[in-house]
Amino acid sequence: MLIHWKPLVAGTSFFVIFILSFASYYWKRSTPWYKIYGTSKSYDRFCRGPLARDTITRLKDKHSFIIAPYFDNRNGTLIRIISIIHHEKVKDLHCLLCCQNSGNVTIVKAKIDIHKDRFGFPYGTADLLCGEPPNCTPQYMSIWPSRESDFALIPLFEIKNRNAESSSLEFTVCISTMFGDYNNILQFIQSIEMYKILGAQKVIIYKTRCSPLMEKVLRYYVSEGTIEIVPWPIDLYLKPSSYWHHSMDAKDIGYYGQIAALNDCIYHNMYRSKYVLLIDADEIILPVKDADWKSLMQRLQKKNPGTGVFLFENHVFRNNVFDLNGPFNFSSWSGVPGVNVFRHIFKEPNRKGDFNNKKMVVDPRKVIQTSVHSVLNMYGDTVEVPSDIAFLFHCRIPERKDLTDESLIRDPILWKYNTSLIANINHVLHESHILQSHAKL
User: Fold this and answer.
1) What fold characterizes domain 169-440?
2) Domain chopping of the chain, boundaries
3) 368-414 per-position pLDDT tens digit
4) Is 245 helix (H, G, I), strand (E, B) or coil?
5) If you count DSSP H runs as helices and E runs as strands, how many of each does the chain have, helices first?
6) Where are the strands (E) in 320-365, listed by range?
């Protein structure tokens, strides 16, 4: 029998080429990364451009806002971009990675992970997750709604936390967000000085705006090295609410984007601070049995090894109920705007079973996503700290409207710090010229 080999070989070759081409096409469609721009010219034009300098950067789609990208190798190797996006209108986003070792710009489709605590608002905090391709260790990147992009219009970001260092700070306080004409000067100074006594080395404030007098206080603390200000111009892009739920105020995003700011603060301090406290300026985590936060956390870690989140029960000290016979009604402080926490020593009793707005001390390296009163996603365990060990001192307007003043509990716990705290407050009022400034108003 005579066999014609040439047509058979040609047909087989065509079939093999077809299969390889189809497999290559399918691999490019299914793999999470693939090269589109591979010339050094493209790399130079995009990756050597100016960096985005604003805290919040709006993308071309007008519904995506980038805070910052962070390298995260705790579970795989990826880039986590803290962002704010519209939960319905944003469907596709892509990371453009500057692979300097190969001179290529590689595009990776982002996984969009919207945090569950959106509280009904159309915009919420999201993690945009992009895996790093092999042989690509980008220092710079961008994020874009489509694969086809005009490099001239793309904002370029530096990827933070690429070179992790050992913690240089023990305790960092994250306060978010300062907005409106915030002018609670006296209580703010009292809180900052208490944080310092308890062990804080850095206080980070995400600031939208405040009063001129408050600006003066902030400048003093920045020059001292205690406070770090992060500009937070959320109101330039969205209509922020000063409430936590959309049903209370139908705006774009809750509480001036507080949750996005808290998540950014955790990642910003992931490798520079051993512990991060997520609290407001009218709140202080007070040890009951320990002198400071260091001894408190040593106690808690010894009893709860491997724990990454410590929750502290909220105790509301009413700022409209005064201790009339207390020794701390100083005339020199009466001219300073704000609440004098020394005069408010009556707290509301907490009812067992009621929701409590706890606040947290966290190991930032064990946090993946946080909300305001709990961590949403993490490595390790969470512990609720008994209130006889420590609790959250929260001097504010009444929370339980059903309670009369006679039902309150007298607790002058803050008074034990009076000697050093009062001296420190007076020093700040003098050095920042707050008393003189207010006298001129």
Assistant:
1) Spore Coat Polysaccharide Biosynthesis Protein SpsA; Chain A (3.90.550)
2) 33-158, 169-440
3) 999 999 999 999 999 999 999 999 999 999 999 999 999 999 999 99
4) coil
5) 8, 24
6) 346-347, 359-362
